[in-house]
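Design job #97: recover the sequence.
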């Protein structure tokens, strides 16, 4: 019977330790809060040259590309979109 008491105490103690460590690290998480939406600095929707659907046409070849801040070059002709 003494073994079962120690085993139960170990399992409960280990679980409690895990919960306490989770709460400690979760509280001190330095990740930034999420923003509600994208900041619009141009007065319209998206960046200049984009239409409402979130696409931007290439000035060189006319291919429609995704309007995303990481997309800088046309996917067809590789000309700069900015």
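Job complete. Output follows.
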């Amino acid at each position: 019977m003494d073994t079962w008491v120690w085993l139960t105490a170990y399992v409960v103690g280990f679980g409690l330790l895990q919960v306490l460590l989770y709460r400690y690290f979760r509280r001190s998480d330095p990740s930034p809060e999420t923003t509600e939406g994208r900041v619009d600095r141009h007065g319209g929707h998206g960046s200049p040259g984009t239409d409402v659907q979130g696409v931007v046409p290439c000035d060189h070849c006319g291919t429609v590309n995704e309007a995303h801040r990481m997309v800088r070059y046309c996917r067809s002709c590789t000309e700069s979109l900015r």
